[in-house]
Automatic annotation (TrEMBL):
This is Deoxyribonuclease-2-alpha. PANTHER family: DEOXYRIBONUCLEASE II. Belongs to the DNase II family. GO terms for biological process: apoptotic DNA fragmentation. Keywords: Hydrolase.
Length: 372
């Protein structure tokens, strides 16, 4: 039986959840909270829930108890000798005005006593602060946010790290001992702050949730920045991309693809659409330079109209800082860490794409109205 879901209410967890005594931060199913602008609570999707509507979060998201998001982070914001984690955020807690090309925010958590880990991905700046108590930034209630949790086996962490390595996240806390990651070369490079020295390339990884009965498949697409590489170097390495890909695939378990300069540019069209081979409908802030793109049959980019509605919570692109997309046809939902701006074409970026009909259906309903 699946453990109860990450963002469900505390009383519901206590009623239905089978809790591990060693580590109590994990769910075994994919869960997403969408907090609309101006709201103090969120709407909840559970990946394994039967088709239906969003659940309401009964407790304020700023509360340090009464909702399972705070419960799941309890070993991040407080001390626990059996739980270690790495936290990254381009706007780290208590550090103003950091300049970085990354926009990724999240926490990788693992237990030192069981083969159990979690990956939390979110959009909230300055949050969570390590081991200083649960402290939701109240100013962020004015904006729209996504909070995502994925429970995995520890062996999946290396694939996540391989994707993160390309986007160069700003790591502000890490106490995961090397004894836990000795067989994870990409994680160790990430933790040590190493920057990839290869020319621009994309990484495609696939991981699964820790649920033997019905694991949720998650594809991670990331691309490195391009501005620091010269044009001649790009052309040179592009000529050998096929040979390199075959060689790398033969010596490493992770799939990394070197792309040519033009394919590398844009995360939405040149990475996500190319990988999914489907049209995507995009909810994101946008500039006047990147438009919807319908030039290739069945591989379009359609922009979702603003404002929109999450059941009875209104959202709009002026206040909502989330970037997400759904495939057409389904069943894929993607969270992207960069908005649909022209400048992201030369910056690192990552997309986390979840293949799940229940999550897809909820977000596809928000995407009902499209721009021409």
């Amino acid at each position: 039986m699946c453990l109860h879901y990450f963002f469900s209410l505390i009383y519901y967890i206590l009623k239905r959840q089978i809790v591990r005594t060693e580590l109590r931060i994990h769910c075994k199913c994919r869960t997403i909270v969408y907090k609309a602008p101006g709201q103090a609570t969120g709407k909840i999707i559970e990946a394994t829930a039967a088709a239906g509507n969003w659940q309401d979060g009964a407790a304020l998201i700023a509360n340090d108890q009464g909702h399972s998001f705070a419960t799941a982070l309890q070993h991040v914001v407080r001390e626990n000798q059996n739980v270690k984690f790495l936290a990254y955020n381009n706007a780290p807690p208590g550090v103003p005005s950091i300049k970085t090309k990354s926009n990724s925010k999240g926490v990788i958590i693992l237990s030192t006593t069981t083969d159990s880990a979690a990956w939390i991905v979110h959009t909230v700046p300055g949050f969570p602060a390590a081991k200083t108590g649960y402290n939701w930034p109240l100013a962020e209630n004015a904006r729209g946010h996504l909070l995502i949790c994925l429970t995995i086996l520890e062996s999946q962490i290396n694939a996540i790290a391989a994707s993160l390595l390309l986007v160069q996240p700003l790591i502000h806390y890490n106490d995961i001992p090397k004894t836990e990651t000795a067989a994870m070369p990409y994680f160790n490079k990430l933790a040590e702050g190493k920057i990839p020295t290869l020319p621009p390339f994309t990484s495609r990884q696939t991981i699964r949730t820790q649920n033997d009965a019905a694991p949720v498949i998650v594809h991670i697409y990331s691309k490195s920045e391009s501005s620091k590489y010269g044009e001649h170097e790009l052309i040179f390495h592009s000529s050998f991309r096929t040979v390199f890909s075959k060689l790398f695939h033969a010596i490493a378990p992770l799939r990394v693809y070197v792309e040519n300069y033009h394919d590398f540019l844009e995360i939405y069209k040149k990475v996500i659409v190319k990988a999914l081979k489907k049209t995507i409908k995009v909810w994101s802030r946008r500039d006047s330079k990147l438009k919807g793109d319908c030039r290739v049959s069945q591989r379009h980019i359609r922009l979702i109209k603003s404002p929109a509605v999450v059941v009875d919570h209104n959202t709009n692109l002026e206040a909502d800082i989330t970037n997400w997309a759904v495939s057409d046809p389904g069943n894929i939902f993607c969270h992207i860490d960069k908005p649909y701006f022209k400048n992201q074409t030369r910056e690192p970026a990552m997309a986390i794409c979840i293949d799940n009909i229940n999550i897809f259906t909820r977000f596809d309903a928000i995407a009902a109205q499209l721009e021409d």
